[in-house]
Design goal:
By secondary structure, the chain is α+β, with helices and mostly antiparallel strands. It contains six helices and eight strands; from the N terminus they run βαββαβββαββααα. The chain has a five-stranded antiparallel sheet. A three-stranded antiparallel sheet has the order 1-3-2.
């Protein structure tokens, strides 16, 4: 099996991969190396750790181009993939359909995905489940519908203010304005939820 790495112009094999005994085949501007030699090449590449946030679901079933999640996973209906996705990624049951923040969609085998990602548990701020894993308050009361609406409106107003500040520009003064707006929302919500 062969791997392909981009050829660096005007460099000797020793400079490229640090191994003077490596035999290289050159084909149209690429270096072709065997898998056993790729380990040597890979040791010279920088390492990266993923810190991306993605949306994904484990594929429980595939019907034509429709990828179906487990019926209990968040009430999802599934994803209809186009032919290009199916041909390029060749999704399999048990693997994960993945969508990145920029909208790019991909497929990941279960082992790779589960080793690289941890599911983010979220709770809507107006949900009665919002108190889960909160370390500051030990007892909560259930909010009325009006209190939930007030809390949501305060947060929406704060978010709109911060978005407007970010559109205007950045400076020390703007950072202080945003920090104080976040504090104002925090205290106002605390009043509603006490």
């Amino acid at each position: 099996m062969l791997g392909i790495t981009r050829k660096k112009a005007q460099r000797t094999p020793e400079q490229i991969i640090g191994h003077d005994a490596m035999m290289q085949l050159i084909f149209e501007g690429y270096e072709i190396v065997s898998i056993s030699q790729q380990e040597t090449v890979m040791k010279h590449f920088p390492e990266y750790k993923s810190h991306k946030t993605v949306q994904a679901f484990k594929i429980a079933e595939i019907e034509g181009n429709i990828l179906l999640p487990d019926m209990f996973e968040g009430g999802l209906a599934g994803w209809t993939a186009d032919d290009e996705y199916m041909t390029k990624h060749k999704p399999e049951v048990g693997g994960y359909f993945v969508m990145y923040e920029d909208g790019y969609t991909s497929f990941s085998p279960a082992k790779a995905f589960e080793e690289g990602y941890t599911k983010v548990e979220t709770v809507d701020s107006t949900s009665d489940e919002r108190t889960t894993n909160n370390t500051m308050r030990h007892k909560y009361r259930v909010l009325t519908d009006q209190e939930k609406a007030d809390m949501q409106e305060l947060k929406d107003l704060g978010e709109a203010f911060v978005e407007k500040c970010n559109k205007i520009g950045s400076s020390r003064e703007m950072s202080l304005a945003i920090t104080n707006a976040e504090q104002a929302v925090m205290w106002a919500v605390k009043h509603v939820t006490r």
